[in-house]
Write a structure and sequence with these properties.
Layout (H helix, E strand, L loop, with lengths): L1 H14 L16 H8 L7 H20 L1 H9 L4 H33 L7 H14 L17 H4 L2 H25 L7 H23 L7 E9 L13 H17 L4 E3 L13 H14 L3 E13 L2 E14 L5 E6 L20 H6 L12 E3 L2 E7 L6 H9 L4 E6 L9 H16 L3 E5 L5 E3 L5 E4 L6 E9 L5 H5 L2 H18 L4
Parallel strand pairs: 1-2, 2-3, 7-8, 8-9
Antiparallel strand pairs: 1-12, 3-4, 4-5, 6-7, 9-10, 10-11
Helix pairs in contact: 1-2, 1-3, 2-8, 3-5, 4-5, 5-6, 5-16, 6-8, 6-16, 8-9, 8-14, 10-11
């Protein structure tokens, strides 16, 4: 049973490498116990046993990092605790299936090629993360590389290979340590020494990159004001509170403008009404922008309508971001493209008959079809709504289309005082490094903040407090290797993993 103890240990170390309770240092050794269990000479003989080891690691890891999903469904989905636990268990099981499928692959290649094959595990791990990003609409939460987002010298690798490159580096150290344990050759220390040299080289290069900070002196500066109104989710859509909610945003906006803000950003769904449907409320926002000569970016649901037997009926509902110009007119609207399962739509509704209250409580949003850049003066900006920011390719696509500034608006009130707001903010900051852009983030209950192109957090709020942040960002048109070439390392890893499988089939055991 020691194999399962090792699998559990890997799951615990993975969990402990992420905020808010963890530390990035655990990430470097997190996969080692599992890989030792898979590569040991007396390791699991049936591949289904290796599958179970990967499943156990995944179950511990994703339970420890996604536990907050249950609280969201109980608090805001109006469903019983046991049903919420069941649904969350389904999500954890699905995410755990990825390391569960990875484990027998690693075990099989080790049996075919010897212990040295364990050093290919980082390729397989990154391939798995690529699958988590894209398959079945994707859910790339807590990818391994994100645990190094606050370790800036290491995180700079994301400007070259994205978060997957950081994942590869971290997983390589774990794999080298595992080889050191299981190999029986006199030179088993070489991969570990090599990995440490590579990490040191990356750290030195990254430190110099951060110290130089060339892009913090380029481009046009702009003072950005972030409004964090701290509206409790339980009253957000209470019609009796709509006027006071709007007034809070207006008041905080005036504070931001008084502090020099040239662009004000409100959070996701900050409007307590449909912006295009409520004439009085929308005019107040337009007047605020017009009277102060400051553009305002904010979140609001958007509805499209159709005529049915002479009646006006709802056609589609979108989670949207509006930009109102300094003259009070609408500059543009972005419709959220990557919707949250069980938050904005319920997949497989017919199968989830036991979760009827959740299905009824979740609005059936439609997804936007394209990126919309929003004009601010002579520049264009992009916005990612809520957890869209954890999709690297989606933000990169906006940069390729000409975004000079990354913005993200979110309503993390759903998460409560859990690890999720801290995980979310940390993952968002990686986009700034990847794409060489300033990132500004407005969150209803926090964390709101400003991140520079090197991942430094220039401004940051605490959660569950009203706050106004005013700080300087810059419009940039520079380009990182990652922004130009995308996830080439991740796709190369997938090809290499496939090639390893094919060549292993031809080897004699």
């Amino acid at each position: 049973m020691y194999e399962f103890a090792l699998a559990i240990l890997s799951g615990l170390l993975l969990t402990a490498s992420f905020p808010k309770f963890g530390h990035p240092a655990f990430g470097w050794i997190a996969l080692t116990p599992l890989l030792v269990a898979l590569a040991a000479p007396g390791g699991p003989r049936p591949l289904r046993r290796a599958f179970m080891l990967g499943l156990v690691t995944g179950a511990v890891f994703f339970t420890g990092t996604l536990y907050w999903v249950t609280e969201v469904m109980v608090t805001y989905g109006n469903i019983q605790g046991w049903v919420a636990v069941l649904i969350n268990a389904g999500l954890v099981a699905y995410q755990s299936a990825y390391p569960a499928l990875l484990a027998p692959l690693i075990r099989w290649t080790v049996r075919r090629n010897g212990a040295l094959a364990i050093l290919a595990a980082p390729l397989a791990w990154v391939t798995m993360e690529l699958g988590r990003t894209h398959l079945f609409s994707g859910f790339p939460w807590v990818l391994l590389g994100y645990n190094q987002a606050t370790v800036l010298p290491i995180a700079q690798l994301a400007s070259v290979f994205g978060v997957y490159g950081v994942s590869m580096l971290v997983a390589t150290v774990s794999a080298a340590l595992a080889y050191l344990v299981v190999a029986r050759t006199p030179y088993r220390w070489v991969p570990t020494a090599t990995a440490l040299v590579v990490v040191a080289a990356v750290a030195v290069w990254g430190s110099r990159r951060v110290a130089a900070s060339e892009w913090t002196r380029e481009g046009d500066p702009i003072r950005v004001g972030l409004v964090q109104a701290n509206v409790d989710q339980s009253v957000k859509w209470d019609a009796r509170r709509a006027a006071s909610i709007l007034e809070d945003h207006v008041r905080l906006t005036r504070e931001a403008i008084a502090s020099g803000a040239e662009l004000v950003i409100w959070p996701e769904s900050s409007m307590p009404f449909f912006f295009e449907e409520d004439r009085a409320g929308s005019e107040e926002v337009r007047a605020l922008a017009r009277d102060n000569h400051v553009p305002i970016l904010f979140g609001s649901d958007q509805a499209t309508w159709r005529t049915d037997n002479g009646r006006r009926v709802l056609d589609k509902l979108f989670n949207a971001a509006y930009l109102v110009r300094a003259d009070g007119t609408t500059a543009g609207v972005y419709r959220k493209m990557q919707l949250v399962p069980f938050g904005e739509f319920v997949p497989m509704k017919r199968l989830l008959f036991f979760a009827a209250p959740l299905v009824e409580a979740v609005s059936d949003f439609s997804a936007g079809e394209r990126i919309e850049l929003l004009p601010v003066g002579s520049h264009r900006i992009s916005t990612a709504i809520c957890y869209e920011i954890v999709y690297p390719y989606l933000v990169r696509d906006a940069v390729l289309e000409g975004s000079d500034l990354l913005t993200t608006i979110t309503n993390d009130a759903w998460f409560g005082a859990t690890s999720a707001p801290y995980q979310h903010f940390t993952q968002a900051s990686m986009r700034a490094i990847e794409d060489g852009r300033y990132l500004v983030r407005a969150a209803n209950t926090g964390i709101s903040g400003i991140v520079d192109p090197y991942g430094r957090v220039l401004e940051q709020t605490r959660i569950y407090e009203q706050a106004v942040v005013v700080g300087t960002a810059r419009f940039l048109r520079t380009s990182t290797f990652y922004a130009r070439h995308g996830d080439i390392l991740a796709y190369a890893s997938a090809i290499a993993t496939l090639a390893l499988l094919i060549t292993s089939r031809r080897r004699v055991k």
